[in-house]
Amino acid sequence: MSVPDVLLWVVLPYLSIVLLVGGMIWRYRTDQFGWTSRSSEWQEKALLRWSSPMFHFGILFVAAGHAVGLAIPQEWTGAVGISEQLYHLGATVLGAGAALITLIGLCGLLYRRIVVKSVRLATSRMDIVTYIGLTVVICLGTTATVMNQIFGPAGGYNYRDTISVWFRSIPLFNPQPQLMIDVPIAYKLHIIAAMLLFCVWPFTRLVHVVSAPVEYVTRPYVVYRSRDEGIASAPKPRGW
Amino acid sequence: MKVMAQIAMIMNLDKCIGCHTCSVTCKQAWTNREGTEYIWFNNVETRPGLGYPRGWEDQDTWKGGWRRTKSGKLVPRQGGRLSSLAKIFANPNLPDLKDYYEPWSYEYDKLLSAPKDSANVPVARAVSLADKEHIDTIEWGANWDDDLGGSMETLDNDPVLKKMNLDVAKNIEDSFMFYLPRICEHCLNPTCVSACPSGAMYKRTEDGIVLVDQDKCRGWRMCVSGCPYKKVYFNHKTGKAEKCTLCYPRLEVGQPTVCSETCVGRLRYLGVILYDADRVGWAASRENEQELYQAQREILLDPNDPEVVANAQANDIPHSWITAAQESPIWALISKYEVALPLHPEFRTLPMVWYVPPLSPVVDAVTASGNDGEDHKVLLSAIAQMRIPLDYLAGLFTAGDTRPVELALRRLAAMRSYMRDVFMGREGDESIAGAVGMDGKTIEQMYRLLSIAKYDDRYVIPTTHPEMPRGISELEGCPVSYDTEAFHGMAPAAMGRAGNAAPRRPSLPLEVL
């Protein structure tokens, strides 16, 4: 196993995890005010109206697909009676569909980001990094699926024998980089790009992903809160 | 009964001259930053007119406020919890910059940097602050139809005129007009707070002020569309929501809000009101929209009722706040004189900025027709006959029920006539007072409050720290110690202001309990 292999499939994964988790914690503790989705709906609404939901719902579906494909061992799906052929068919059809929706949404968002001037002016440097990172990762992932699963060898490429096992070996602190050596190049590039994106994730507006307001569903409508004790407890002179 | 305290405001519309001083001073204090160019926590609208943002009252379009379901429950009109979350990626009800206006500035620099021998007169062209492009023709602003300017084109789109099926005269001589200053309503049942997915918005338990926690806001924008008054704004620079804070840092030390302090017409009143928090849901969900005004008045509690006071004390409301509620100009104008009315109660948010409707459109019309605009008989019959101003005001303040508006206007008219006699050196005519269900003494009290009330009568604001009465915190570093005698000697509430002989209110904290 060569040095680059170890760097890519052992060092980089841990580095990206450290940066992602550590960066998130650091930013959450130091930059609550900057923690926002930074919506540009105020500047432009018509294009956002369809492209943003397409992108977001698409990418959520893609994320769920990744969770299933990477986290669940194929022995488990086999045990409940899902054959490899059936899994491959389902994953390819659903995955390609979700990728298509995500890509159309992304194109719409990129178009308005670049062409609508008020949106372009509201774009920060980290937004550019975010957009490039997301576009590269999504395009590479789609390419890998199209090349290997749709137009590849019959039955597609079974990443659950290699990539998924490697993926699970990382959090178990038993990294198995040798599994990644013979993985098709498109998958390799997709994974590297994704890990690089995770490295910068906490420093972009992507932090809004972990703020998905699920607690809203169970909350009472009107929130009451007492005056901030931090302000109220300021030293006060004696009153008499 | 769960008694809670709320700081409320009342504006006397007859006194508003539409000078926009409140808007400008508010903007200087709060929204003179990049990202807030288009944000007016306080704005003044000419009525009839579209308002700001354009046609904000039309909830069929904007879906603000609450909707009562068939089973009598309240749901935000823009959708319940799940439906709101489904719209989080693109909020279809969000006004965009065309509905507000494209903020702009001028190239003032070009006036200074133009070359000496330039063949052309240097000009400062308008530049959009959104996309930095030149704007050749500015087509809308926060205040475009001020004084009915351009209203020939836009007046028909006034949501109140539409809803009340009113056809107003469009020639300036025959039309009626008044100003409506607006701030956040600090509602008892706020939809913005209810719509915030992050729980970043809240109503303060001590004083009922509705605020956005800037650290917790994640920019989901549901509050902007949820608010039927469109008084929560999106800061496009920070990506967070901002709104009127009722100048809480000033209120906490007993000072009035900036808009009140700088109002040249002195038309604003601030004070504490006690309300029954247990009945807020009941009051907001009355089936008949026209009952909402009365229902809201019912949950406002009489601060002089011993049971209310006992309950307020049990609920940890400071003594100084209860005293302030008893002296509140708000309680007097809403419940004693019944001249103040809520803005659009049909939104079901139970707003806490109320208005004394303007009598001036009626008086102006009566005077213009050659009659005596201060004769109560003429005025009272004119109020009943002039349906358009009356219906329009009812569309603004009482969900279309003209009776409360008519009562308020009749009382204002009666006050006018009664006080004319007094000033002419005649005996006040009790029959005038009696005709509107009042007596001469009450009319004179109402006159004092509406016409010549002093600073301390208009703003009865208890401080955050009961041991620090208003005025005292400004004396930090004062060489005089806070010893009891020295303290008794000063009148803290009015230090340095209004040194006239108006009777001083006893300073609250020294009262022996």
TrEMBL record, chain A:
<feature type="binding site" description="axial binding residue">
    <location>
        <position position="56"/>
    </location>
    <ligand>
        <name>heme b 1</name>
    </ligand>
</feature>
<keyword id="KW-0408">Iron</keyword>
<dbReference type="GO" id="GO:0008940">
    <property type="term" value="F:nitrate reductase activity"/>
</dbReference>
<comment type="function">
    <text>Does not seem to have nitrate reductase activity.</text>
</comment>
<comment type="similarity">
    <text>In the N-terminal section; belongs to the nitrate reductase alpha subunit family.</text>
</comment>
<dbReference type="GO" id="GO:0020037">
    <property type="term" value="F:heme binding"/>
</dbReference>
<comment type="similarity">
    <text>In the central section; belongs to the NarJ/NarW family.</text>
</comment>
<dbReference type="InterPro" id="IPR003816">
    <property type="entry name" value="Nitrate_red_gam"/>
</dbReference>
<feature type="transmembrane region" description="Helical">
    <location>
        <begin position="185"/>
        <end position="203"/>
    </location>
</feature>
<keyword id="KW-0249">Electron transport</keyword>
<dbReference type="GO" id="GO:0042128">
    <property type="term" value="P:nitrate assimilation"/>
</dbReference>
<keyword id="KW-0349">Heme</keyword>
<dbReference type="GO" id="GO:0009325">
    <property type="term" value="C:nitrate reductase complex"/>
</dbReference>
<feature type="transmembrane region" description="Helical">
    <location>
        <begin position="47"/>
        <end position="69"/>
    </location>
</feature>
<dbReference type="InterPro" id="IPR036197">
    <property type="entry name" value="NarG-like_sf"/>
</dbReference>
<keyword id="KW-1003">Cell membrane</keyword>
<feature type="transmembrane region" description="Helical">
    <location>
        <begin position="6"/>
        <end position="26"/>
    </location>
</feature>
<keyword id="KW-1133">Transmembrane helix</keyword>
<dbReference type="GO" id="GO:0046872">
    <property type="term" value="F:metal ion binding"/>
</dbReference>
<dbReference type="Pfam" id="PF02665">
    <property type="entry name" value="Nitrate_red_gam"/>
</dbReference>
<keyword id="KW-0479">Metal-binding</keyword>
<feature type="transmembrane region" description="Helical">
    <location>
        <begin position="89"/>
        <end position="111"/>
    </location>
</feature>
From TrEMBL, chain B:
<dbReference type="InterPro" id="IPR029263">
    <property type="entry name" value="Nitr_red_bet_C"/>
</dbReference>
<dbReference type="InterPro" id="IPR017896">
    <property type="entry name" value="4Fe4S_Fe-S-bd"/>
</dbReference>
<dbReference type="GO" id="GO:0042126">
    <property type="term" value="P:nitrate metabolic process"/>
</dbReference>
<keyword id="KW-0411">Iron-sulfur</keyword>
<feature type="domain" description="4Fe-4S ferredoxin-type">
    <location>
        <begin position="208"/>
        <end position="237"/>
    </location>
</feature>
<keyword id="KW-0249">Electron transport</keyword>
<feature type="domain" description="4Fe-4S ferredoxin-type">
    <location>
        <begin position="7"/>
        <end position="35"/>
    </location>
</feature>
<dbReference type="GO" id="GO:0008940">
    <property type="term" value="F:nitrate reductase activity"/>
</dbReference>
<protein>
    <submittedName>
        <fullName>Nitrate reductase beta subunit</fullName>
    </submittedName>
</protein>
<keyword id="KW-0677">Repeat</keyword>
<dbReference type="InterPro" id="IPR006547">
    <property type="entry name" value="NO3_Rdtase_bsu"/>
</dbReference>
<dbReference type="GO" id="GO:0009061">
    <property type="term" value="P:anaerobic respiration"/>
</dbReference>
<dbReference type="GO" id="GO:0009325">
    <property type="term" value="C:nitrate reductase complex"/>
</dbReference>
<dbReference type="Pfam" id="PF14711">
    <property type="entry name" value="Nitr_red_bet_C"/>
</dbReference>
<keyword id="KW-0813">Transport</keyword>
<dbReference type="GO" id="GO:0051539">
    <property type="term" value="F:4 iron, 4 sulfur cluster binding"/>
</dbReference>
<dbReference type="GO" id="GO:0030313">
    <property type="term" value="C:cell envelope"/>
</dbReference>
<dbReference type="InterPro" id="IPR038262">
    <property type="entry name" value="Nitr_red_bet_C_sf"/>
</dbReference>
<dbReference type="GO" id="GO:0046872">
    <property type="term" value="F:metal ion binding"/>
</dbReference>
<feature type="domain" description="4Fe-4S ferredoxin-type">
    <location>
        <begin position="175"/>
        <end position="206"/>
    </location>
</feature>
<dbReference type="GO" id="GO:0016020">
    <property type="term" value="C:membrane"/>
</dbReference>
<keyword id="KW-0408">Iron</keyword>
